[in-house]
Amino acid sequence: MSASTTVEQQQPPAKKPSGNGSGSLSGYLGQNLRQYGMVAALVIIVVLFQILTDGKLLYPNNIAALIQQNAYVLILAIGMVMVIVAGHIDLSVGSVVAFIGGICALLISDHNVPWLLAVIVSVLIGGIVGCWQGFWIAYVGIPAFIVTLGGMLLFRGLAIVLVGTTVAGLPAGFNNISNGSLPSALGFLADLDGLTLLIGVIAIAGLAVAQIRARRSLLRNDLRTEPFAAFAGKLAVSAVAIGYITYLLAKSAGGTPVVLIIVGVLVLLYTFIMNNTVFGRHIYALGGNLPAAVLSGVKTKRVNFMIFVNMGLLAGVAAVVTTSRAGAAVAAAGNNFELDAIAAAFIGGTAVSGGIGKVTGAIIGAFIMGVLNMGLSIMNVDPSWQMAVKGLVLIAAVAFDILNKRRAK
Predict the structure, then answer these.
(1) Mind listing the pLDDT tens digit for each residue in 127-186?
(2) 189 pairs with which residues across the strands?
(3) How confident is the model at residue 215 (pLDDT cuts 50, 70, 90)?
(4) What is the rounded average pLDDT for all residues in the chain?
(5) CA distance from start to end of the chain
(6) Nearest-angstrom CA–CA distance, 183 and 13
(7) What is the DSSP string of 268-310?
(8) What is the CATH code of the structural domain delimited by 39-44+54-180+257-408?
(9) Contact predicate 282/293, CB 8 Å
(10) Where is this region: Disordered (predicted)?
(11) CA distance 40 to 38
(12) Contact 365, 38 (CB under 8 A)
């Protein structure tokens, strides 16, 4: 046996990289610049408009209105993230919202269908629309851009045929879906709604428990985690943000908006689906590396089909919320909704090339768009300039994503 071999055998084995999150904080922040950059951008935009509007942006009633007015974007952005992560695009959701909203209003006003049943039927019709588009995309092989472009024209035309003029006279229970608030069942603490405060405490506690359990699971399996300082800072900032929003909503005229509960449930549900289910992992696989996904046995046709069925269901929910908010159905409803949803997804960090994106990121992107809309409206900026500003923000967000990828490479 040679001396060199003996020396090699005497050397200790290479130490296994630890996933205990003890790496450099600056290095971690640099690697996740996109994620934290969007949060910082939202904070900066809020502070900027709070100054420019003389403190009016964060009036309690304005925060409630911000959530109610932008609920449709939040709902559609959830589905759009899944579509874009898988490497597709959906241009039809605005027209689908108008089409299903018209059906919902007609069922209630002309056919005396109970509004709750009409809501269920509307969401199911959204699923059927998703089946229609998913079939052409997944099983016939037509690109999603073409199918949904055709769907945009098809369902807008059907909306005009069905609705014609405005369909109004909808019941108060239905209108309260988007305009109402939860009842003050627990009374008031000083001038703060007790139920809203309880919901905020539960949200903060739930977030903390979920994040701590997830981190412990990663450490237990010796997987890579973020540095503890980043973890603690992110948790603290999230808790402060939720607490402050809870305080503002508790001071508002109505308390917790009903639509906020709907959006919150959807965010939790789809975050779990994307992070903890086989279906979610398959969506990332499709957008990240399609040939590898096929070789790995992913049933790509079925996954693509279900992605668009899901998008249709969420478009049905958005249609109900939009029609409820307006108190009527109009053929022009949903105009540019698809652009708002796509912009929210991209601003929130979803990669243009697919494979990367988070539901929470899209929610941040939607709130950036919503704050821009409300802040500029309070300042009485012309709607045309509001559209121009949103377009510039979208270009800047995508450019930032591309430059960040180049820097990483």
Answers:
(1) 999 999 999 999 999 999 999 999 999 999 999 998 877 888 899 999 999 999 999 888
(2) 192
(3) confident
(4) 88
(5) 44
(6) 64
(7) HHHHHHHHHSHHHHHHHHHHH-HHHHHHTT--HHHHHHHHHHH
(8) 1.10.3470
(9) yes
(10) 1-23
(11) 5
(12) yes
- For helices 258-276 and 278-288, give the axis angle rounded to 10 degrees: 70
Q: Whose structure tokens read 């059927």?
A: 128
Answer yes or no: are the C-beta atoms of 333 and 101 closer than 8 Å.
yes
Length, in residues, of the chain:
409
Q: What is the pLDDT of residues 355-374, one digit of tens each?
A: 888 999 999 999 998 999 89
CA atoms within 13 A on the CB side of 82: 28
The backbone torsions φ and ψ at residue 127, rounded to the nearest 5 degrees and listed phi first, read -60, -40
What distances in angstroms separate CA 156 from CA 227, 316, 333, 339, one per listed residue? 50, 14, 9, 15
Q: How far apart are CA 305 and CA 293, in angstroms?
A: 16
168 C-beta neighbours (distance < 10 Å), count: 12
The token pair at 81 is 């993230």
Cβ burial of 301 (10 Å; 0-12, 13-18, 19+) is: middle
Whether 89 shows a pLDDT value over 70: the answer reads yes
297: left (phi over 0), alpha (psi -120 to 50) or beta: left
**Token pair listed for 257:** 């908006």
Residue found by looking up tokens 């239905």 in the block: 174
H-helix or E-strand containing 160?
helix 144-163
Residues 6+ apart with CB under 8 A from 2: none
Location of structure tokens 């409300």: 374
Span(s) in the chain for CATH 1.10.3470: 39-44+54-180+257-408
**Contact (CB, 8 A) for 151 and 92:** yes
Paired tokens of 102:
């018209």
pTM above 0.85, yes or no: yes
Q: Which residue is associated with the tokens 């790496």? A: 23
Asked whether 31 and 230 are in contact (CB, 8 A), the reply is no
